[in-house]
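Re: the multi-chain job from yesterday

Posting the exact lines I submitted so nobody has to dig through the queue logs.
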Amino acid sequence: MKIKFNRNQRISCITKVLIDNPNKIINLNNFTKMFNAAKSTISEDIVIVREALNKLCMGKVETVAGASGGVKYIPQISSEESKEFVDELCEILKNPMRIIVGNFIYMTDILYDPYIITRAAVIIASKFAELEIDYVITVETKGIPLAFEVAKLLGVQLLIVRRDTKVTEGTTISINYISGSSKRIQTMSLSKRAIKKGSKCIFIDDFMKAGGTANGIINLLKEFESEVLGMGVLIDDVTTQHKLVGEYISLIDFKGIDENGRVELVPSQKKHP
Amino acid sequence: MKIKFNRNQRISCITKVLIDNPNKIINLNNFTKMFNAAKSTISEDIVIVREALNKLCMGKVETVAGASGGVKYIPQISSEESKEFVDELCEILKNPMRIIVGNFIYMTDILYDPYIITRAAVIIASKFAELEIDYVITVETKGIPLAFEVAKLLGVQLLIVRRDTKVTEGTTISINYISGSSKRIQTMSLSKRAIKKGSKCIFIDDFMKAGGTANGIINLLKEFESEVLGMGVLIDDVTTQHKLVGEYISLIDFKGIDENGRVELVPSQKKHP
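And the result, structure tokens for all chains:
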């Protein structure tokens, strides 16, 4: 005997499945089987879910036509919620206790906090929602959780570029690049197996200084005949004015530490396209 | 004028909020404000969500009493779905094209695939749901997405132990450890700011060979007067029979590559407590 579901119950479960699979097309047959219900019933359920999430700017539910069609959930966040989150994050990071030797701001705890990273990732992912990409790419280590979460929300695979080469990666391609700020030569590598030729990527990282790493990623991807369509960072060091890369998005501008030891951080002033 | 929500719509949005905040207590006032509805109405909505998710083993919704009380969502996966996922993952990893020089299995793509990692993480997190922990800890790099996702599902912060020391970490404590398989001396370090004394952690990683890394983590945490309450890995190399650590969970047993070049992988045979 099949379990029966009423509309309320189906709506809860459909919402769960959609939220768990952002930007993945889910065929309605999955739901008709799951609930032992007619396609027309499921379609009505989905209309309700779409309207509900839409009302609170919690994301879009789009219908994809065709044989491999179905519905997909596109994460969103309201501009008020986004603003509130970024303001709050600035306040957290301004804490003078975070200043460490060398005038760095300790922010590792923020970068590894799922509560913060999932919110930052929705804001960043929603800026790239219109792009057709194959991968999100980042470089180890601190930006990995953010990049992973953005990849998940965009429904694509993550690529992590390594600073070293590992036997478990198989054949790799390594490039040398000059870090924009310290002018040191560094190496980054990616497995030949990791990426298909002709891929389109977005680069996600925690922090942008001069953009040397971002530039390195662009050059590394050229070796794979692939390209970077967009870039996003959590924090942009605007004290480094000459950037090696073009357009990118950021959530927070870091304006340095003033003579009184105050950390200057503001929501990003860049105009995002 | 406040937007009105009917029950169906509230249920969709409540499900969304719960799923997005696993193991976090959400006060009912959040929902009464969000929907401009009475607490009794919200309580009824939550009962429906609980029953719906419960029917399909999609997770538990628990009520937490007291002043700071509310509801929280505890992720779950049905044993059939879990079995199906692990079987499928074994098949993917058995592909002989994955064998790389040195008789390693290339699995980086799997470890950075959000679709796979989120499912593996639910299975692993649900084994540790009863533990009261402060952190999920891992070591860079390949296990980070899995560990991050487990941390998110358990509602705690992630810690990433580094192989090197970075100026952006402030003061760090480093230990040397001997990798159980290669017998090489290696270093791992953690920022003093990263963790509170007396913390309880679980260690999550992608692969366990002899357990040298896991053992190193246990010793590193001792320096912070903290302890490992549990360990979980995606794949256990059972060809290395002598393990340096005690109890741990794993999803897949790697039994080596046979003389015909077949990769032997099976769902983990360990009895999980």
